[in-house]
Structure formats: C-alpha cells, structure tokens
Design brief:
180 residues; alpha/beta; 6 strands; 35% helix
C-alpha cells in the first residue's frame, strides 16, 4: 500500500515539474509588447470593421476592455500595466457592462455604449515571435428607415509576428464573423 502511495507521489511530482517547465518555456509578453499587439491588431481589423459599420472608428471612438484583454495575456488589469502599454491609438477604458442595456432585437436603448465601439482581444496562441488572437468589436447599429437600435458584432482572427525584438506586424487576417 505504501509503495503505491509513494509511486503516486512520485508521478504527481513529475507531472508538476513537467507542467512548470512547460509554463516556464512560454514567455509572458511585457506590457509594452502587449501594447504593440493591441495597436497592430486593431489597425489590422479596422478597415474590415468600417465596411460593415458604415462609419469610421475615429468617428465612434473605442471603449477598450483592458481587464478582459490583459487577463488573456496573463496579467491582472492595473494602472501600472496600462501605463506601460505605450499605445499609439487613443482608447477609452470600457467593460462588458456597457452592453447590459443592448440587444440584437432592437428592444433596448443601448445608451451606455452610445456611438462607441466596445473592443477586446482574445489571444489563442502566443509565442516569442508569433501571436494568434481574436479581435472582438461590438457597436450600436441602426438600420435605415428605423429608429430602433440593435447590437452588432464583428470578430476577426488576426495573426501577427515579429523578428527578434522588433515590432509586431500583421501576417494575415483569418476568419471573420459578422452579426448585424
């Protein structure tokens, strides 16, 4: 019986060491790198989003969900991390609470979000030289000849890379999904 417990203990210790070494091999991106990734990803999907929304991001402004995005990269959202992002685009902080009075049926006012675009990034794969992620955007749409507002969504898969410690650049856009 004790032999089995000792064997089980050794197996558990081995699994813990392997898991720790795998985690140690995946470097955590610095806030500055995450800022470059945010800038490159939002810039990459902006033209596609603007075609669907019939307006520009500059006209609407971005309400960026820092907490959700930073959590995806393994960070707690805090003022220090935000200050070190070094973003080149002006983003106003936002959260999914902006969407509580919105729906896709046009039965709610969607006054919290207003004309802004709610945006967050969802990383799916991160290495030292490549990043794959989804950029999610939601906004208030108004169909022509209607006074009702509805929640529209656009998500696009983005692939970025960099050489050495250079800037993150777009490799390609992947799948895109529009709900409007």
């Amino acid at each position: 019986m004790y032999r089995h417990l000792r064997l089980l203990g050794c197996v558990c210790m081995g699994v813990a060491l392997v898991a720790t070494s795998i985690k140690a091999q995946t470097p955590q991106r610095s806030p500055k790198e995450i800022g470059q990734i945010i800038d490159a990803a939002v810039q990459a999907v902006s033209p596609s989003w603007e075609r669907h929304a019939n307006s520009t991001i500059a006209e609407r402004g971005i309400r960026f969900d820092y907490a959700r995005t930073m959590a995806g990269f393994g960070y707690a959202d805090n003022a220090r991390a935000r200050a070190n992002l070094g973003l080149t685009r002006a983003l106003t902080a936002g959260s999914d609470s902006l969407l509580v009075d919105c729906d896709q049926m046009g039965s709610k006012a969607c006054s919290r979000l207003g004309r802004s675009v709610y945006v967050y990034l969802e990383p799916t794969s991160v290495s030292s030289s490549e990043v794959a992620l989804w950029v999610h955007m939601e906004w208030v749409g108004t169909p022509s000849k209607s006074k009702r507002t509805y929640l529209a969504s656009f998500s696009a898969e983005v692939f970025l890379s960099r050489s050495g410690s250079g800037p993150w650049t777009l490799v390609r856009l992947g799948k895109g999904v529009v709900i409007s």
